[in-house]
Amino acid sequence: MAQQQAIIVLVDIANALRERTLRGNVYLFDNMLFLGSTGEGTEDLVTAIPGSYWSDGSQGTEQVLNWLPSSLGSIPPTVPRGYHTDRSQAIDRQALEDLTVLAGQGGPASTETAAGLEAIRNRIGTQARRARGERAQVGGKLLDVTGHAITSADAAAVNHPVPIITDITGEAVDEKIMYPAQYGSPDMVSDGWYWSATVDTARPGTYAYTMHVQLHELVNRNGEQVWEPVDFTCDSAIRVTTEPKYNAFTGAGLGALPIPAAPPS
């Protein structure tokens, strides 16, 4: 059975957009440190791929990589994918309730009424749409990292959409060591889409690969807030090692398990 390996791609979006590079603004982690991965927590991660082969040299078992992009200093990726919509609807419902209270007070307009309306406007925040033709699920109400709506004047504190991996290329793919593809699933964290790859573990060596990462920048276009995609690349590598497939119980080659003799009656 294939072993599932996770690679977390943690991006400092604000700095990456400011500097227009992922170099120095991405942190890579995997769950294979105990088997030899190096560069954990840096952009120079080399993921260990422990492979195995049969006595005839054929592949014993494949490994599966799963890339999990995340954003540094944003709403945690562990919240359900509907969190943004739920929070937006809750904010609007509360604003309607507050407006109903103000309307019920009756009487002529007053300073208190004007202040109440202004407070409601600030709590509602502002909207941002996604760029024309953009496929990413971004747009709607702007939220900060605590899930509260913000105005365009507070755009510096905006919660950026999660980074999106759009492709996996490079030496490992060209040499057919790695077979990447994008998959869909009902996963509530990854928004239903993720990149995964099967690795041929019968060919030892170190192979580089490149992640194509798309971030989104909040810009003003004709007086309207728009999320515009900005594409980056990030290099990493895998190191495939192999060993003969053996019996984990006996430490020897594959074969029947030893059966202890029955105790004397």
> Which CATH architecture of the largest domain?
Sandwich
Structure classification = alpha+beta
Q: What oligomerization state is this entry in?
A: single chain
Proportion of strand residues: 35-45%
* Count of the separate structural domains: 2
Q: What Rg is obtained from the alpha carbons, in whole angstroms?
A: 26 Å
CATH level 3 topology of the largest domain: Immunoglobulin-like
Please report the distance between the alpha carbons of the first and last residues: 41 Å
β-strand number: 13
Q: N-to-C SSE series?
A: EHEEEEEHHEEEHEEEE
Q: Give the overall form.
A: elongated
Helix percentage range = 10-25%
Q: How many helices does DSSP assign?
A: 4
> Quick check: average pLDDT?
79
Q: What is the CATH superfamily label of the largest domain? A: Inclusion body protein
